[in-house]
Amino acid sequence: MKLIFFLLSALCILPFHVQGRAEPAGGVAAAAAISQAPTVWEALSDTFGSSYKEEGDSICYWNDWRDRDQRAEVEGTWDCRYSRPKKIIFGIVNGRWYCTKRKGTC
């Protein structure tokens, strides 16, 4: 239990250390923590999220190239298919996103 508390404390304090010294609590440190919140949330939702997502002009399926190909055929964007690794927390790769562009953006 003490080890878990220590590790969690270290993870909370570590981002506020800059060049070997801790930043003062309050304004700057709080703003830095708040600005990092969306990034952490995106990583968690990408880790535990669904197997389908729409991002901008792309439609992506996790580990399902058949659904991607079917969608590309419906959208008429067969030549605009691509895939990329699905990275979760700490950059660990957990499968692939198979994506295609939307109609009119290819």
Characterization of this structure:
The radius of gyration is 20 Å and the shape is globular. The termini are far apart. It has helices at 2-13, 27-48, 65-75; strands spanning 17-18, 21-22, 52-55, 58-62, 81-87, 93-101. The protein contains three helices and six strands, in the order H-E-E-H-E-E-H-E-E. The chain has a four-stranded antiparallel β-sheet. Strands 1-2 form a two-stranded antiparallel sheet. With 106 residues, it is an alpha+beta fold.
Concise description?
The chain is α+β, with helices and mostly antiparallel strands and 106 residues long. Helices cover 42% and strands 27% of the residues.
The first-to-last residue Cα distance is 53 Å
Sheet of most strands: 4 strands, antiparallel
Tally of contiguous helical segments: 3
Secondary-structure element pattern, one letter each: HEEHEEHEE
The total count of strands amounts to 6
Spatial order of the strands forming the largest sheet? 3-4-6-5
Low-pLDDT segments, ≥5 res: 1-10, 12-23
Shape: globular
Instruction: Write down the overall mean pLDDT.
Output: 74
Radius of gyration: 20 Å
| Percentage of residues in strands | 25-35%
Q: Tell me the structural class.
A: alpha+beta
The helix fraction, in percent, is: 40-55%
Write the layout of secondary structure elements.
Layout lengths: L1 H12 L3 E2 L2 E2 L4 H22 L3 E4 L2 E5 L2 H11 L5 E7 L5 E9 L5
Antiparallel strand pairs: 1-2, 3-4, 4-6, 5-6
Structure characteristics:
alpha+beta; single chain; 106 residues; disordered N terminus; 27% strand; 42% helix; globular; two-stranded antiparallel ribbon; 6 strands
